[in-house]
Amino acid sequence: MDDATKNELSEILPLIKFSCMDYEFVKIKKKFLFSLSESIQVLSLSNRMWKAHVIAFDGEDFIELVSNTEEEDFIELIYELVEQYALETQKADPEADLKEAIKKKFDEVFPRINFPKIHFKFFTKFFADKEFLFSHTQLCKALSKSIKNKLEEEKVYEMAEKEAIKKQQLTIDNNDLNDIIKAEMSEFLNDFLYYKMSFAFFIEFIVPKAFIFSELKLYHGLSNIAGNEDQEILFNTVFKLAEAEATKALSVNPYISVNKYIKRIFLEITRKIKFSQIKLEFMIENIGMFFFFCKILIEVLYLS
């Protein structure tokens, strides 16, 4: 009966758009219609939804109260099928390495996994003993897109940066070492939610690697997460970064005006600095910076 049904549908199945079908519908269909490899492909094409997603704000961060996704269910099922497929491969070829066979099949599914629907906690728990499935880049890309709270966001970024630095230290070519770090992180750099990170973390881990980011992305990232108590550090950090950028630009073009370069950067960011939260003592101690800023402000007011 099963074989007759399969033969009857054999010409129709390739024409069906499984990407338009819900995951739960595809999941419960007769398994005899598909080989293991076909089941993996069909399920990976299906439309996977949230089952429930309830969040609450605890005063500092959003907390997931009840949350489950079909994407996580899909991961569990697809790994089970991939493992079965690899075991069958190994039966046919006893010399075949089981982990390599699993990874090879899983790599076909990887681009179709919707990682923004997967929780960091689920990911780290389920794949704890399956690290062989991912290259460093794949792992960082997956985790950077996953659903994370503030601490998890920082943890993943720190891990990604440390792995990039490790790769930099192992390199033996003549490329610029900073370029190696930047290239290694470029594939997933935009996937992080920087607004979730603390200002202290930003200063400790991101500012020292300023070369990874565009100037404005870095400055806006800093100003967006800085609290009232951080405004002095924000002002000081932005000024020093602007100075460093100007010095770098001067080494490329000796005719550039350092003051104009710093002014251009400051005009972009100073509107976000809360000067009312900066103490007079700090202004006096850093009179040079504030004198320079006042000159810029007077020029802007004069031209407006």
Automatic annotation (TrEMBL):
It comes from the Eukaryota. This is Uncharacterized protein.
